[in-house]
């Protein structure tokens, strides 16, 4: 029997505007990486593609690579590029 993996994803700025929420949950039937989360988000929200490809990803307040494997109930934060003045 496959154990379901639930991942909470938090968004900021333009990403939150595209998704329409600050946080959502995504589900997987097998262990998932940050790359799997990004892929699922782009499938659900095609307008998110460019921003998702340019963003950094964090888990537990640490930046991670896209091959980072996520535990069940992990929270992933999509951090879009920012500019300042």
UniProtKB/TrEMBL annotation:
GO molecular function: nucleotide binding
Family annotation (Gene3D superfamilies): 3.10.20.30
GO biological-process terms attached to the record: Mo-molybdopterin cofactor biosynthetic process
GO cellular component, as recorded: molybdopterin adenylyltransferase complex
UniProt keyword Nucleotide-binding, yes or no: yes
Residues of the signal peptide: none
InterPro entries, alphabetized: Beta-grasp_dom_sf, MOCS2A, Mopterin_synth/thiamin_S_b, ThiS/MoaD-like
CDD domains, sorted: Ubl_MoaD (cd00754)
UniProt entry keywords in alphabetical sequence: Nucleotide-binding
The family this protein is said to belong to: Belongs to the MoaD family.
Protein known as: Molybdopterin synthase sulfur carrier subunit
